[in-house]
Amino acid sequence: MRTSTRATRALVCAVAASTALGLAGCNRSSDSDTGGGGGGGEAQVGVALITKDSTNPFFVAMQEGGKADAAKNNVKLTIASGKQEGDDQGQITAIEDAIARGDKGILITPMSTGVNAAIKKAREAGLFVIALDTPPDPVDTVDITFATDNRDAGKRIGQWAAGQVAGKPATIALIDLFSDKIVSVDYNRDQGFLEGMGIDVKDGKKNGDEAKTGKYTAAGGGDYTIVCNEAGNGEEAGGRSAMEKCLAKNPDINVVYTINEPTAVGANAALKAAGKTATIVSVDGGCAGVASVKSGVIGATAQQYPLKMATMGMEAIAKIARGGEKPKTTEGLDFFDTGVALVTDKKVEGVESITSDEGSKICWGK
User: What is the strand order of the sheet 255-258 is part of?
Assistant: First the structure.
């Protein structure tokens, strides 16, 4: 999916308007919290928001956005999460708790296919389940997904990266999310990045099976070498460790794809410690990540909108519980697309983008 400059500017304005309430109260939350009251006299609706963890700024912003909007919709919101990325059991317990409470619906960023059975149990119990950010596999595990088009996000940073090397050899490090779990957000961003650079992928749902050397075709094309596919677990420390492993294999890496911005910061620390520089690209668009674009640590990032995901999801469940219509997927997709914009201060011809100053006006987190 590509947008015109006018459409990109419209997205910025729309997101700024839709997230203003959430941005006003964006502080860290505990693992469990509730909100409710108000709502014009209609019966209160119980909703569970279950994120992967409560420390990643992306999920913190999602939690804060949900809390800020709960009273407006007369929702009793319960927030829960896994202890960290990969904690399937933590999410399963939270799902079972939502069923036991008699909640009307669940908003969840599913950890992996390991939580699918629990989601099925919730739906069988009559709860409406919406996935946020991470479409489950298969996608019909939930009623609907509200998410960034992660494939598109990956393609945008791949197109931009190709424009930066512009015909020169690209020596690439890929720092993914997991090595022991298959998650759609992981392979969609990784494979989208490669597609954006014009590198052939084999199985679009599998990281690491593409040819390790060949030609990239975007931005005039050139030779490429993929040095590594390492897992950073979405964390700064993991990003640094993964980058160190990649540099040990080839110290001449000049392009680094990262699953998210904490990973990118860690990768940059490893490069700096080794006395190396590289073009780093990422996905998320949090305020810290946008600041890293402005400072030059990250060359470009694809910005997504967790506040919008959480508030739209909660509003949808409240509406359904009161007899309203169920949400529909975006035309041509199997989920509802909540939008994405490329943030960079080094514009590449033919790749739509906004500046870090523009991105900072609609970013999330602290």
Answer: 213-216, 222-231, 170-176, 255-258, 279-284, 300-303, 341-344
- Model confidence, pTM: 0.81
Tell me the pLDDT tens digit for each residue of 11-34: 454 454 444 333 333 332 333 344
Q: State the Cα–Cα distance between residues 303 and 99, nearest whole angstrom.
A: 33
Q: What is the pLDDT of residue 41?
A: 53
Determine contact, residues 99/129, Cβ cutoff 8 Å.
no
* Distance in angstroms (rounded) separating the CA atoms of residues 175 and 172: 10
| 274-303 pLDDT, tens digit each | 999 999 999 999 999 999 999 999 999 999
Alpha-carbon span 308 to 317, nearest angstrom: 14
State the first-to-last Cα distance of the chain, in angstroms, to the nearest integer: 29
Determine the 3-state secondary structure of 338 from DSSP.
coil
Q: How many residues would you count in the chain?
A: 366
Residues 95 and 178 in one domain: no
Contact in structure between 182 and 166 (CB atoms under 8 Å)? no
Number of domains present in the structure of the chain: 2
pLDDT at position 102 over 50: yes
Distance separating alpha carbons of residues 287 and 279, to the nearest angstrom: 20
Q: Which domain holds residue 226?
A: 150-303+345-360
The answer to whether the beta carbons of residues 286 and 168 sit under 8 Å apart is no
Can you say how many angstroms the Cα of residue 212 is from the centroid of all Cα atoms in its chain? 26
Alpha helices in the chain (DSSP H): 5-18, 20-23, 57-70, 88-101, 116-124, 150-165, 184-197, 236-249, 261-273, 287-295, 306-321, 356-360
| SS3 at position 136 | coil
Give CA separation, 65 vs 17, 33, 161, 211, 308, in Å. 13, 13, 32, 42, 8
Question: What does the alpha-carbon distance between residue 92 and residue 95 come to, in Å, rounded to a whole number?
Answer: 5
Residue 333 lies in a domain: no
Average pLDDT over residues 240-250: 98
Same domain, 356 and 263: yes
